[in-house]
Amino acid sequence: MNNELDRREFLKFAGVGGVVFLSGLSGQPGLSFPIWKSKDFFFVQLSDTHWGFEGAKINPDAKGTLIKAVKEVNSLQQKPDFVVFTGDLTQTTDDTNVRKARMKEFKQIVSELDTKVVHFMPGEHDAALDKGETYKDFFGKTHYTFDHKNVHFIAIDNVSDPTGSIGEPQLEWLKADLAQQKPDANIVVLTHRPLFDLYPQWDWATRDGAKAIDLLMPFKNVTVFYGHIHQENHHMTGHIAHHSAKSLMLPMPLAGSMPKRQPIPWSASEPYKGMGFRNVLSESKSDNYQLSEYPIKEDARI
Amino acid sequence: MIMRMWVAVIVMASVFGMTSLGASSDETAKIIKISAKRFEYTPQQITLKIGVPVIFQLTTEDRTHGFNIPSMNLRADIVPGKVTELKVTPQKTGEFDFFCDVFCGSGHEGMNGKIKVAE
């Protein structure tokens, strides 16, 4: 097996969503392609696919973008260890039957991913109207943990409560989980909404996110990956890095750059602009994640 | 018929520069009724005068909504069957957006309004 990550292969992700190369934890994203060690790995973060969204002025390829993303991920020779979806898998609806149909279709499409493990998380569009009941029927728990190659992953649900809160019971669960971790443990938090007040004027925050950050703060190596804001953003709260992912359905403007929080219209001259995916690469000898962001290629349009 | 209840909300309004306890006890404040339903407020535009205290009386016609003005550090849940009061005294001119921060469905992201504070 070739242990060296092929840079060209890595760049081949260009065209779908976001890839993260985990080179340790913390700090700002970078671009490097170190020797592939036994505990090194990368995973793909896809987010805000909003399956069921309709709006030709925003995304005339609404039924093709996710399928395209799946094909792009599958085209890699170096397979990601896993794929994570950080919420808003589907577009919200009042009709429970429609919600079920959208989740069924979404699940069918992503079942084509050529990866052994896919981790899902809800967004408010999936879970807020029924407190996650339908979501759980299709995708399981809304908050959970898993461990992978010396990294402890924690998925936090800040959307099933329509107020955009984590809630005291889950915070107690988080506290108990963290109590099992060493101060220098490598911890990755996956969530949908930003845990910090990115731009509360557009509801880009978690009402009690500061409590989660307070619980995480004693740990040296913590990085947060999230969605919700439909664009790449990198922010530090103390030593904790927060990285948001692009959407695979509709891009949003920079916080406060427009009077209203509205999706960016489709540009015929720049199709898929603002959409993409992320690759996260983890290297066991380093303390940094290596992130790479990639757009969607027009020639792959379905 | 749902019995309405008065709910006094402690306001921490850093921009407006005052706090309020038991808003309904202040008879000098102007009452402004704001009704919420998916996915709009009525009215959506509100004009206030600087230094003149007002009491927002918030109600909902359908389900729980939020009323949030982050720039004023002012928010409340609007719960069915209740009147939620927020008392404020504007001490700064300008335009301040308010929005629903309790997810209420497709169209939630566009549920907002504006408060204009004039001299």
* Morphology call of chain A: globular
Shape of chain B: globular
Task: Tell me the Rg of chain A in angstroms.
Answer: 18 Å
- What is the H/E order of chain B? EEEEEEEEEEEE
Low-pLDDT stretches of chain A are 1-16, 23-36
Describe what is shown at a glance.
By secondary structure, chain A is α/β, with parallel strands linked by helices.
How does this structure look, described?
The complex is a heterodimer of chains A (302) and B (119). Chain A is of the alpha/beta class. Chain A has a single domain (21-28, 37-300), classed as Metallo-dependent phosphatases (Purple Acid Phosphatase, chain A, domain 2, 4-Layer Sandwich), CATH 3.60.21.10. Chain A has seven helices and twelve strands. Chain A has helices at 7-11, 65-74, 96-110, 124-127, 133-139, 168-178, 209-216, and strands spanning 18-22, 41-46, 82-86, 118-121, 144-148, 151-155, 186-190, 221-226, 233-237, 240-244, 276-282, 289-295. In chain A, helix 3 links the parallel strand 3 and strand 4 (118-121). In chain A, helix 6 runs parallel beside helix 7 (209-216). Chain A starts with 6 loop residues before the first helix and ends in a 7-residue tail after the last strand. The relative contact order of chain A is 0.25. The model of chain A is unreliable at 1-16 and 23-36 (pLDDT under 50). Chain B has a single domain (5-118), classed as Immunoglobulin-like, CATH 2.60.40.420. Chain B has strands spanning 5-8, 11-13, 18-20, 30-37, 40-42, 45-49, 54-60, 65-69, 74-78, 82-88, 94-99, 112-118. In chain B, strand 4 and strand 5 (40-42) form a beta hairpin. Chain B is globular. Chain A binds chain B through residues 91-94, 124, 128-129, 159, 162-164, 200-203, 207, 260-262, and chain B through 64, 66, 68, 70-71, 77, 97, 99, 101-106, 108-110, 112.
